[in-house]
Inverse folding.
């Protein structure tokens, strides 16, 4: 079963006012999704974001963003450069492939030997 992991690719501290407590200490984080299985590690090109107030610890959802927060978010969104989408095979994958190739080769050898 694939495990999903969100990896932080950019984090910024904002000085905009929190809509909940009106404090000027917000943190904007951009995440990229990674999938891990026993055979493959895959990086997707899917990017998500989250804004959290450091004082009241509340998550600021886009419905309650002010115009200032939205402009700041758009600025930082342009600066985010996610890693390319890629697939990497684990050593277990290569061991399974090698074992299958050896088994097929051995089967062909035994058939041709008779």
């Amino acid at each position: 079963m694939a495990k999903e992991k969100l990896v932080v690719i950019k984090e910024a501290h904002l000085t905009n006012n929190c809509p909940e407590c009106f404090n000027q200490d917000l943190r904007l984080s951009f995440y990229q999704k990674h999938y891990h299985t026993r055979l493959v590690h895959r990086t997707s090109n899917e990017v998500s974001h989250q804004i959290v107030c450091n004082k009241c610890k509340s998550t600021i959802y886009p419905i309650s963003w002010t115009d200032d927060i939205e402009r700041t978010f758009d600025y930082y969104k342009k600066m985010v450069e996610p890693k390319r989408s890629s697939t990497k095979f684990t050593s277990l994958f290569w061991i399974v492939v090698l074992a299958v190739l050896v088994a097929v080769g051995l089967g062909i050898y035994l058939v041709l030997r008779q």
